[in-house]
Design a protein that fits this description.
mainly beta, single chain, about 525 residues, about 45% strand, 18-stranded antiparallel β-barrel
């Protein structure tokens, strides 16, 4: 809390300085949005509710009225420092909440660095926002987590590299907001957590001088940790098992920042405190004046075995069972990966962007897990169980996975458990979009997904599904009397055993504009 108060104090002083030079309400923008969804089948189709920052629902009939105001940080781009803020609230029906504070943030920039306090929607990195199936670590599928975030949001050219190297990244600490929802969803008979804390950090390096070459390479590393809080666990019959208090505070923050230590129930085994996970990212870009091409990869990991593709396996025997005696390692294969190809056309309005993705998450360091002990000294770190954790409720917020929605979100679970029941899958995904006439934009998504359940609870036979989305939106020209208005209609469908046979339509009406113009 001291860190939060300190950051708010810093931003407050900048707000005072800003107010003396320019009104904080200059060019304040607004957006009002009304959305309704009607569907048939078991639940709302996959692409009608996924990758919408958690402002969505699986229920067959749902909708919301949303209002937002924002002072964009970009208004101060011409000066060394800047101030921005936003408030985004929705009143919903058929959602996990009736009143949703989707975004509420204040941010300050000094030169290239930005400090943000609050909940804000952040885009995926190194991926197409509207056509990709999603990012495996920091996706756009769940509600934003309130946090204190220090970032270089845009690439900063590293000095003395002749513009060939640039860097961006962030570090953040926050707290999840779904405590009450977890208790209600599980009926306090399945594992849930309270007061869980959140840490994320990421860095991205860009190689390539746009003034000299047509290509660039981007390399990224994303890390996240769920730590602190209280974990409630239950037996299979729903009776209480134990309560585990995880370390928070400054010590917990440091252990989340620098992986190490162990969970409260780890006993003699050591590992990263809390639930640690992340991704290795890479993207190659080639752009001309007429077209562009990108190839990208996203490898997700839950622990050292999938992070470094090796694990130490040289422990002693008997009394020395937990002592490192030999230089021996167990090697793992690089199988779990999301690969994508994106092609962009500059002067082709009917089809200006097309994307293909391949997704695989079946390996997870293999089907065998064994921690070395007094009897068997061999250590094999398989069964990584992506997006799940023995203490925490896994990589989810408000029932939606924080990463890629091809991992089946806990909201699908009819047994009231908060876990990902299908995390071993392979999939093929396509997306394309265009702007055939001024103001009209469309996109299409199609995904074939074959699910195998989890290592602990595999499906007796693979569960398959095909999900699709056809969406079109129209924004009225600024010269018309409907300036600022837009309409969007979408049709979504699922076919198959994994998600069931579902179909639905979604209509969105929005109005945006400037609430207060420049006051000078």
């Amino acid at each position: 809390m001291r860190i939060v108060f300190s950051t708010l104090l810093i931003i407050g002083s900048l707000l005072t300085a800003q107010a003396q030079e320019r009104s904080l309400f200059d060019s304040l923008t607004y957006r009002a949005e009304l959305q309704g969804t009607v569907s048939g089948g078991d639940h709302n189709p996959l692409w009608l509710h996924s990758n919408k920052y958690g402002l969505s629902s699986l229920k067959n009939t749902n909708g919301y009225l949303r209002g937002a105001i924002e002072r964009p940080l970009s208004l101060d781009n011409g000066r060394k420092w800047g101030i921005g803020y936003g408030l985004d609230v929705a009143v919903a029906a058929g959602f996990t909440s009736k009143l949703i504070v989707q975004q509420a943030f204040v941010e300050a920039r000094w030169l290239k660095g930005t400090l943000t306090v609050g909940a804000k929607e952040y885009p995926m990195e190194l991926k197409n926002q509207e056509l990709s199936s999603g990012a495996q670590t920091f996706g756009i599928n769940a509600r934003p987590i309130p946090q204190v975030r220090l970032a270089l949001p845009d690439y900063w050219i590293i000095p003395h590299t002749k513009k060939w190297l640039a860097f961006k990244g962030h570090i953040a600490y926050g707290k999840t907001t779904d405590d009450k929802w977890q208790k209600d969803f599980t009926n306090q008979q399945h594992k849930y957590t309270e007061d869980m804390l959140y840490h994320s950090k990421a860095g991205y390096l860009k190689i390539g001088n746009p003034e000299d070459v047509l290509f660039s390479v981007e390399l990224g590393a994303e890390f996240a940790t769920q730590f602190g809080g209280t974990c409630y666990r239950f037996h299979s019959d729903g009776t209480p098992d134990d309560v585990v208090h995880q370390e928070g505070g400054i010590k917990g923050m440091l252990r989340a920042l620098i992986p190490g230590g162990k969970d409260t129930v780890d006993d003699d085994y050591t590992g990263g405190a809390g639930n640690s996970l992340g991704s290795w990212l890479a993207r190659f870009n080639f752009d001309t004046d007429e077209w562009g091409f990108s190839f990208y990869a996203d490898h997700f990991f839950e622990d050292h075995s999938s992070m470094f593709f090796m694990d130490y396996d040289g422990y002693g025997e008997g009394p020395e069972w937990n002592v490192k005696k030999k230089r021996r390692y167990f090697l793992y294969a690089l199988k779990d990966i999301q690969l994508g190809v994106e092609i962009r056309f500059v002067d082709a309005p009917w089809l200006n962007n097309i994307l293909f993705e391949y997704f695989y998450s079946k390996y997870q360091s293999g089907p065998v897990y064994h921690d070395h002990d007094e009897v068997v000294s061999d250590h094999i770190g398989g069964q990584d169980n992506f997006y799940n954790h023995s203490l925490y409720t896994g990589w989810q917020h408000w029932g939606q996975v924080i990463g890629n929605p091809l991992y089946l979100s806990p909201l699908y679970n009819s047994d009231q458990s908060i876990e990902v029941k299908n995390n071993r899958s392979n999939a093929f995904h396509i997306g394309f979009s265009g702007d055939p006439i001024p103001g009209l934009h469309y996109r299409f998504l199609g995904t074939y997904l074959k699910g195998f359940g989890t290592y602990d609870t595999p499906y007796s036979d693979p569960h398959k599904t095909f999900s699709m989305l056809a969406e079109a939106s129209y924004s009225f020209a600024n010269t018309s009397k409907y300036k600022g208005w837009s309409l969007r209609g979408a049709l979504g469908m699922d076919f198959g055993k994994l998600l069931g046979n579902n179909y639905g339509v979604q209509l969105t009406i929005a109005k945006n504009g400037i609430l207060i113009k420049n006051m000078k």
